[in-house]
């Protein structure tokens, strides 16, 4: 019993006995308490900052990047505070450690210069926020999404799913392209080259048709085509499209290139190969050489094979007519110049429907305006099971829901193979102000349909309005003004 008592007494003495360290006295038990307190502060601040980031700040409506930044600042702040307060609370007089800190400081200065630089850069990243968690960035040849910003380094997840750890100083000292700085929307340029002799309007149409087929590009702002320059052996175009997922920039570009290639194939637009003119100084001398090689014979063969190539039918049959030719058949656009047609083509796209296929149903939300380029459609009051009328090439439909802000007043079904030019809702306003002649035509067509509006006023959700009955043109103009400011 005595022995155990002695051991306890000895341990108590060892733990409470002050040790003198560089001018300060401290016991083992104090060191132990301080270490436990440090540990508790580190773990507690990590737990609290995670809770802040994943719960409280989400509830307060902060964005992912800001949440991450606030949580990081909170964590480092609480840890620093803990490291200052705990030793003092344990009765340690740190002023006597100043000389030690000075010495250490010099050591750190030399040994951890890079670390210190990254640490300061980390603070800059957290406070200034040139990049945030979730942003899509480009740094030299590194491209990816920011996953985590720590005080020393930042983790970037590449499109190949590889996490790259980038020292923070690289992100502060180098030029970064942040694709999602203010918003995710960005415009990408896709260069396209075609052979000299190609019709620029047809090329523009083909490129825009390709853009319409890629669902990941935004319909507004609409895609644009620039004729950027006349190159050595090609005319250079650029397709400009807006996307909202910069991460998919390259796959979208690749998909567009595929579709453009396909469109060119259908429309017999040639992508050029490099061409060189060869000047022979002594053609006469060479003639005999070529003759001896049976040049004429092989020339004939070549011409034959090139004829075959040129006349080769594409795998799929091309569309009957170009969009330009179809639009020029529409009364409002028949006197348009090539340039005007080009800007018209930029505002919409061609869509083909087959016999009996519904273009939309009564009650659908109104999302686009349609002009019939070829074929015919029937307008159906589906709920009343009534055939209203047939419309033909040059006619338009789908204006009512856009102008009135109501759902589709009737269903529209193709009666045969029908090609329509579609102008989406958000471009319709710009479309009407660009083509006042068409806007007038729409207004007068609406007047023709006046009786039907009055009859179906309730069904269409229109309020009682004297103008509608007495002066429909005034009413429609007013309506266009309120909805579209035209
Ligand atoms: N009486 C009608 N005559 C011709 N077209 C009509 C008539 N009623 C509705 N439409 C068209 O059918 C379309 C159905 O969709 P919207 O209501 O957008 O626009 C409508 C008009 O373009």
Characterise this structure.
With 486 residues, the protein is α+β, with helices and mostly antiparallel strands. It has 4 domains: 1-92, no CATH class; 135-178, SH3 type barrels (Roll); 186-267, 2-Layer Sandwich (Alpha-Beta Plaits); 323-484, Jelly Rolls. The protein is 49% helix and 20% strand. It contains 19 helices and 18 strands. The chain has helices at residues 2-16, 28-59, 64-89, 98-111, 113-128, 168-173, 200-213, 249-266, 283-292, 295-311, 323-328, 338-345, 399-404, 425-434, 436-448, 450-455, 457-460, 466-470, 472-484; strands at 19-21, 24-26, 136-139, 142-149, 153-158, 163-167, 177-178, 186-194, 224-230, 235-243, 349-353, 358-360, 368-374, 376-381, 386-392, 396-397, 411-414, 418-424. A 5-stranded antiparallel sheet has the order 6-5-4-3-7. Strands 11-18-13-16 form a 4-stranded antiparallel sheet. A hairpin with a 4-residue loop joins strand 9 and strand 10. Helix 2 (28-59) runs antiparallel to helix 3 (64-89) and helix 7 (200-213) runs parallel beside helix 12. The longest helix has 32 residues, at 28-59. Residues 304-318 have low confidence and may be disordered. The structure holds adenosine-3',5'-cyclic-monophosphate. Adenosine-3',5'-cyclic-monophosphate binds next to strand 15 and helix 13.
């Amino acid at each position: 019993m005595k022995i155990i008592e002695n051991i306890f007494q000895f341990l108590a003495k060892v733990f409470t006995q002050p040790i003198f360290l560089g001018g300060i006295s401290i016991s083992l038990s104090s060191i132990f308490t301080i270490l436990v307190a440090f540990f508790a502060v580190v773990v507690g601040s990590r737990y609290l900052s995670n809770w802040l980031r994943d719960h409280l700040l989400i509830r307060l409506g902060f964005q992912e990047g800001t949440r991450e930044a606030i949580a990081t600042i909170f964590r480092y702040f609480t840890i620093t505070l803990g490291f200052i307060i705990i030793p003092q609370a344990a009765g340690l007089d740190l002023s006597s450690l100043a000389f030690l800190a000075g010495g250490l400081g010099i050591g750190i200065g030399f040994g951890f210069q890079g670390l210190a630089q990254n640490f300061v850069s980390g603070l800059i990243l957290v406070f200034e926020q040139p990049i945030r968690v979730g942003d899509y960035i480009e740094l030299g040849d590194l491209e990816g999404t920011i996953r985590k910003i720590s005080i020393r380094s930042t983790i970037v997840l590449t499109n190949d799913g590889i996490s790259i750890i980038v020292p923070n100083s690289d992100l502060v000292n180098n030029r970064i392209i942040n694709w999602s700085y203010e918003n995710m929307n960005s415009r990408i340029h896709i260069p396209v080259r075609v052979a000299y002799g190609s019709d620029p309007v047809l090329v523009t149409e083909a490129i825009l048709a390709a853009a319409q087929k890629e669902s990941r590009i935004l319909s507004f702002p609409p895609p644009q085509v620039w004729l950027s320059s006349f190159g050595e052996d090609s005319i250079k175009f650029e397709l400009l499209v807006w996307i909202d997922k910069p991460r998919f920039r390259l796959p979208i570009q690749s998909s567009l290139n595929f579709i453009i290639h396909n469109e060119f194939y259908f429309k017999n637009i040639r992508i050029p190969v490099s061409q060189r003119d060869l000047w022979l100084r002594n053609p006469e001398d060479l003639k005999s050489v070529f003759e001896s090689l049976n040049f004429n014979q092989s020339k004939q063969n070549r011409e034959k094979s090139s004829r075959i190539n040129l006349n080769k039918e594409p795998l799929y049959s091309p569309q009957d007519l170009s969009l330009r030719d179809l639009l020029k058949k529409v009364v409002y656009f028949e006197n348009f110049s090539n340039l005007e047609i080009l800007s018209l083509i930029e505002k919409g796209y061609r869509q083909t429907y087959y016999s009996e296929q519904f273009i939309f149903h009564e009650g659908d939300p109104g999302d686009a305006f349609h002009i019939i380029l070829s074929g015919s459609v029937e307008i159906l009051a589906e709920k009343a099971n009534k055939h209203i009328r047939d419309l033909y090439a040059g006619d338009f439909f789908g204006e009512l829901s856009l102008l009135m802000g109501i759902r589709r007043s009737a269903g529209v079904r193709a009666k045969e193979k029908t090609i329509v030019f579609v102008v989406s809702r958000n471009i319709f306003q710009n479309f009407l102000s660009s083509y006042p002649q068409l806007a007038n035509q729409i207004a007068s067509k609406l007047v023709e349909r006046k009786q039907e509006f009055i009859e179906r006023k309730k069904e269409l959700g229109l309020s009682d309005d004297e103008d509608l009955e007495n002066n429909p043109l005034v009413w429609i103009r007013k309506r266009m003004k309120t909805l579209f400011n035209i």
